[in-house]
Amino acid sequence: MRHTSITHEFVEYIPGELAEAVLYVSITYRTAVHRCACGCGNKVVTPISPADWQLFYDGETVSLTPSIGNWGFHCRSHYWVTSNQVQWSGTWTDKRIAAGRTRDDWDRQQYFAGRKAAAHEPETAETIDADGRSPLAWLRKLLRR
Ligand SMILES: [Zn+2]
Q: How far, in Å, from the CA of 30 to the mean position of ligand 1?
């Protein structure tokens, strides 16, 4: 049976036995775990990081973003957890799943590109040793002989 709401529980360790319709949140391990909201019993692990899921806690309810797409499960359920409510999406076709995955990859690339830009890392860099020679200089010298 599909759940339409979920409660949350802040824990340090995710318990071995998970109750239905409970989102276990471990801030320590930056992970949330729950049983698939469709009732299939599968364990859904959502790592919490800028590149994975973001968890919002308003003091009473939690939300996870982006949506949860359980493509790896037989149920292929797809839903959002917003303010402890489970909002269901239609079952995704393979094509839409592929499109969703592409978007996820793109989001990740944007995230890492953003981090790279923030760190002012040059696109390429040739390391220089203490004598001011590039590691390749000795090779070039060797090859010229
Ligand atoms: Zn399921």
A: 23
2 within a domain of the structure (yes/no): no
**How confident is the model over 34-62, as pLDDT tens digits?**
999 999 999 999 999 999 999 999 999 99
The two structure tokens encoding residue 72? 């790896």
Q: How many domains does the chain have?
A: 1
Please choose, from the candidates 59, 64, 60, 61, the residue with its C-alpha nearest in 3D space to the C-alpha of residue 78.
Answer: 64
Task: Collect all residues with Cβ–Cβ distance below 8 Å to 136 and sequence separation of at least 6.
Answer: 126
Task: Evaluate whether residue 78 is within a structural domain.
Answer: yes
CA of 57 to the centre of ligand 1 (A): 24
> How many whole angstroms from 43 Cα to the centroid of ligand 1?
9
| Of 41-55, 92-106, 122-136, minimum mean pLDDT range | 122-136
User: pTM of the predicted model, to two decimals?
Assistant: 0.65
Cα of 16 from ligand 1 centre, angstroms? 18
